[in-house]
Amino acid sequence: MFLPWTFLLPAAGIGLRTSIRGHENKQLIQFCLAWFCLPFLFFSFSSGKLLTYILPCFPPFAILVSIGLLSLLRANRFRPFQIGAGVTTFIFSLLPLAFLLIQFVGINGIKAPYTKTWQGLAALTGLLIMALLPLAAGRAQTWNKKVILFGLGPALLLCMVPFLIPDQTIERKSPGALLLEHKKAVKTDTLILSDEESLRAVCWYLQRADVLLIHDAGEATYGLGYKDAAGRLLQLSQLRAKILAHQGKTILIARGRNYRQWIPQLPNPKTIDESGQDGYIFATF
How far is 140 from 129, CA to CA, in rounded Å? Predict the structure, then answer.
């Protein structure tokens, strides 16, 4: 998550040590170290961990790396930076090759990430620039040009990320397009059933707050403890009877893998649509 600066950490460490010995920015360095360590230790001890929990560590980490690199480069000690930039160039130069291999040949059953040519070309361009700008930074003669060129490496790719999410990722992570496609079929008296993974998207896109959960409440367990939420969770044994009681007025939205497990407890659907093999299903009963 700290790319492309990851491979400059040894250089930043050398500069930071020099800065500490010279008593430059001493209080700021101490403050940033404490700022970095507290959330890192706190979330390390927590029983549940998500990738985003580490985000509070990045501002102080960035400040420390900045102090270290500037201390090193302003002293005209370019060699550690050159080595880090060279490693970055080498690693990033492998990414376009890996991308081309996956896109056009495939590897270990991984599908091509893009079906549209312009997306593939844009991704390849971004990856090439990520490799070329660290190379240019290593060859630059002044410290400020080195830092600016190096930092701009991933800029184009980061700007294009919203347009370059792979098709399979959208299928697996976002049921929004599927829900919008069938939104007109959902009437005010339609009974909506959903698994926990689809619940938030179903409520948002269909603008309904009366969705019934199936089998596992997950993160909604706490809310279901309130009196006004009583009866919102259906067990699989109740599923068939509930659907038959609202025949012709029931829809079910769920992850495909969950739906396939529930098929023995379900009547035959009238219609069924899916966002992809590993995505979501929209079934009417």
Answer: 16
Sheet holding 212-214: strands in order across?
Answer: 233-234, 212-214, 191-194, 250-255, 280-284, 271-274
Q: What is the pLDDT of residues 90-130, one digit of tens each?
A: 999 998 888 888 888 777 767 778 878 888 888 899 999 98
- Burial readout 57-92 (b: 16 or more C-beta within 10 A, e: otherwise): beebbebbbbbbbbbbbeeeebebbeebbeebbebb
Residue 149 amino acid letter: L
For the chain, what is the radius of gyration of the CA atoms?
26
d(CA 163, CA 165): 6
The residue ranges of every structural domain in the chain are: 5-166, 172-284
Contact partners, residue 13, CB within 8 Å, separation at least 6: 68
User: Is pLDDT of 251 > 90?
Assistant: yes
Average pLDDT, the chain: 87
Secondary structure letter of residue 99 according to DSSP:
H
DSSP secondary structure string for all residues of 207-252: T-S-PEEES--GGGTTGGGSGGGTT-EE-HHHHHHHHHHTTTSEEE
Predicted pLDDT of residue 278: 76
